[in-house]
Amino acid sequence: QVQLVESGGDVVQPGRSLRLSCEISGFSFSSYDMNWVRQAPGKGLEWVALIWSDGSKKYYADSVKGRFTISKDTSKNTLFLQMNSLGPDDTAVYYCARDCSGGRCPLYWGQGTRVTVSS
Amino acid sequence: NFMLTQPHSVSESPGKTVTISCTRSSGSIVRNYVQWYQQRPGSAPTTVIYEDDQRPSGVPDRFSGSIDSSSNSASLTISGLKTEDEADYYCQSYDSSNHGVFGGGTRLTVL
């Protein structure tokens, strides 16, 4: 079955960097688009980034553009989110989500990894 | 860009039917597929509807999705309400630039 397992969340100081990972199993990583979505404490869901199945196109929310980078390593079945210049507003649980076969429809979700930005 | 607006909260009794709306602020609702997610407290979201009206395997047919172009909105309908349906529900779509958009979420109380 489809499984997505995030890791890498931590407590970091403002201005520092962090890389999140999402290890996938149960499907062909090269066949589906992938997303990162986050949820700040007590708030709603916020879309963060999208990468096409072949890695050729990447899209970002305005709130993270220029600071975050989504990438994938198909040989390791792992999706990444490199987060630089972190600020308190980046404090959230970060989820990876796999699209449906048609694309543009997050369907399967991981359990999330928590990032806290605090001095 | 557009916004998706949901009611902040809805409540209904067990066994009844509830409908949660999701109104797109600009551009046609039919232009991009709408998804619906259920999130229970302390848990990750799960998908209950994708591509407007498709149910993932394992989601009971008590959950249904629809699109109404006249009101430019999508709806999630849950029939035969159960206490386990009590959760936050989010609608979601993409804009023409492949940026995801979420509604603000609706808290469903089953009392």
Q: How is this structure best described in words?
A:
The complex is a heterodimer of chains A (about 120) and B (about 110). Helices cover about 0% and strands about 50% of the residues of chain A. In chain A, the strands form two sheets. In chain A, strands 2, 4, 5, 6, 9, 10 and 11 form a seven-stranded mixed beta sheet that branches. Chain A has about 120 residues and is an all-beta fold. The N and C termini of chain A lie far apart (about 40 Å). With about 110 residues, chain B is mainly β. Chain B has no helices and ten strands. In chain B, a hairpin with a 5-residue loop joins strand 8 and strand 9. Chain B is globular. The chains are: A mainly beta (about 120), B mainly beta (about 110). Chains A and B meet through strand 5 and strand 10 of A and strand 4, strand 8 and strand 9 of B.
Stretches with pLDDT under 50, minimum 5 residues of chain A: none
Assign the structural class of chain A, choosing from mainly alpha, mainly beta, alpha/beta, alpha+beta, or little secondary structure.
mainly beta
Order of helices and strands of chain A: EEEEEEEEEEE
From the spread of the alpha carbons, the general shape of chain B counts as: globular
Q: What descriptive keywords fit this protein?
A:
heterodimer, A: 119 residues, mainly beta, B: 111 residues, six-stranded mixed beta sheet, four-stranded antiparallel beta sheet, globular
In brief, what are we looking at here?
The complex is a heterodimer of chains A (119) and B (111). Chain A is mostly beta strands and 119 residues long.
